[in-house]
Structures are given as C-alpha cells and as structure tokens.
Write a structure and sequence with these properties.
The chain is mainly alpha-helical. The protein has a domain at 46-72. The chain has 4 helices and no strands. It is elongated, with a radius of gyration of 28 Å. The model has no long low-confidence stretch (mean pLDDT 84).
C-alpha cells in the first residue's frame, strides 16, 4: 500500500474506535464475590449418571482400569 492510503485507513480507524477514557463508577470485585457466595455448588444429575456408569464399568471389567488410566 502507498503512504496516503495508510494514513487514510489510520484516520478511519481512529474515528471508528473511540478511545477508552471513562472510569468505572464502582468496584466490581465485591459484587463478584457476592454472586459467587449466592451460587451453590450443585452437581447436575448427568454427572452422577456418568459417575455411576464408570463405577459399574470398573466393577464388571477390572481390566478396564489400565485403559482408563492410560486415557487420563
């Protein structure tokens, strides 16, 4: 590209992207901590079903333990 075209693209980019000069009105970290405390750590039923299937698989075929360990 030539020099005038580069300057034109640069000026268009400066017009399109406004500079970030505003500050936050408040601190977001205490709000984030509050949201984390509100949420309880629940495990979905599908995870329990997968764990049960894994336990059954290992009980009925113990030779699968090395296969599982290899893939971990």
């Amino acid at each position: 590209m030539n020099e005038p075209r580069d300057e034109e693209i640069q000026s268009l980019l400066k017009q399109a992207i406004a500079p970030l000069t505003r500050n936050l009105e408040r601190d977001l970290w205490p709000r984030m901590l509050q949201r984390l405390d509100e949420r309880s750590a629940t495990v979905p039923w599908f995870d329990w079903a997968l764990l049960a299937l894994l336990a059954l698989w290992l009980c009925f075929s113990p030779q699968a333990i090395p296969v599982l360990l290899y893939h971990l």
